[in-house]
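Retro notes, structure queue

What went well: the backlog is down to a handful. What didn't: a couple of records were mislabeled last round, so from now on we paste the full input next to the output in the thread. Example, using Gamma-glutamyltransferase 2. Threonine peptidase. MEROPS family T03 from Desulfotruncus arcticus DSM 17038:
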Amino acid sequence: MVDYDPLEYPYGSRRMVMYARNGMVATSQPLAAGAGLEVLRRGGNAIDAAVAAAACLTVVEPTSNGIGSDAFALVWTGGRLYGLNSSGPAPQGISIETLRAAGHDEMPRYGLAPVNVPGAPGAWVALSERFGRVKLSDALEPAAEYAEKGYPLSPVLATAWSQAFQYYRTVLKGDEFEGWFYTFAPGGNPPQVGELWRSPGHARTLRLIGETNGAAFYQGELADRIDAFSRKHGGYIRKADLEAYRPDWVEPISVNYRGYDVWEIPPNGQGLVALIALNILKGFEFTAKEALDTYHKQIEALKLAFADGKKYITDPRHMSVAVADLLSEDYAAKRRLLIGERALEPEPGTPPRGGTVYLATADGEGNMVSFIQSNYMGFGSGIVIPETGISLQNRGHNFSLDPEHDNRLEPGKRTYHTIIPGFLTRGERAIGPFGVMGGFMQPQGHVQVIMNTVDFGLNPQAALDAPRWLWDQGKTVSLEHSLPPHIAQGLARRGHNIQWALDSGGFGRGQIIWRQENGVLAGGTEPRTDGAIAAW
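Corresponding output:
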């Protein structure tokens, strides 16, 4: 087991590590954690609980995800780790040429153009069918009840909702966005803290998905509605794109970091960035977390990893380099030599050729799930299919319109994806799921959480509580306000362009569940949001 002191709280957390034996669900919303626990107590396993919590999060945290999201999962069951890539491809009717003809020089952020095929409902179905114990309709019912009967908004959720509304009403212009305002700003204003919000169409959609095992969404009534709306408003997604979609079971990728195997989903996800960085960092020795050299080397390694990731990561069928080459020891050693005393401008190397929700679940039988689901940039594309509650992601925004770029837009292609679940093992034993949501913060959060755990012996809660940094671009690094000032001053002396963040909203939101050697589950939840752990 990870060697940590369960009673040490160096960052003054308001939360304590949670312990349980029979089951645990860690999410960014208490109601979603409760939904997962409800399914566990009714005889479901950790996989059922993950599906229940994920579906519930589309209702109780729509500022980050929806039924039209994408999803990824790492599942430990039967002594083995499985990977699920449920991100959707670009529609067959879109291309660089069609967008340029429509007057776009880069991928739009909002509207129907950046909408790829949604993968989240497919993930729920795939997980339930392969590993679940209860019917999908039963797993989705707690979410449907919250959508139908309503729930009161929690504080961080209400703040994010209000901020999104203020922004969207200035940028979402056109009839295609009416559904968003009707659904998420009923009466012309967003719901406030403690105010009830309902979405009856959302409830009906969830029940249709559950009753038909996803067929209504990909082949039936809901697919017809998405197709009709897209045609009416000049979009590209069609029913045929939905009918052709299948999630992919994939082999997770890993690096060994100081005796622990850190696992991620392979590209098109950006988990590879975290692994490249850890592969570089394991060649250094770190004596203390709150040391200038620790922060400097972490930042430099992430910069190098991101330079490679942004150049090479895309749909694996279109990558110009192999994952194994990017994770080779020789390449890590070569990149490590670039890290000196001064901040560098990151450039991609040439390897030798050869607005997200995260949740973690575990049960008393040994099953564990690391699951992440997201629209993008908060509410996503700003498109809500009328009377369905389906808010669509805008993942296509990450495509490049440069025909020479690995991640160039092509019909039927998956784009570079920011959402990544993580998992930690040691030898043949599962330690557990972890994740930090938040756009391009995610691999940076993964590296910081793993080092907090493995290098510095922090317990799950303290590993999440610790101050974070975020590399933005070039030599610019944002620091959380709780980070020691002397570290900021030292980084500035080394050439980093330091910016203090006004709040902690951009530093990600994580969850961790570790299984101890005695079988007891130890969980930590994010202090930067309305996080909660439900356990028994």
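Agreed that this is the format going forward. Reviewer comment attached to the example: The CA atoms of residues 191 and 197 lie 7 Å apart.
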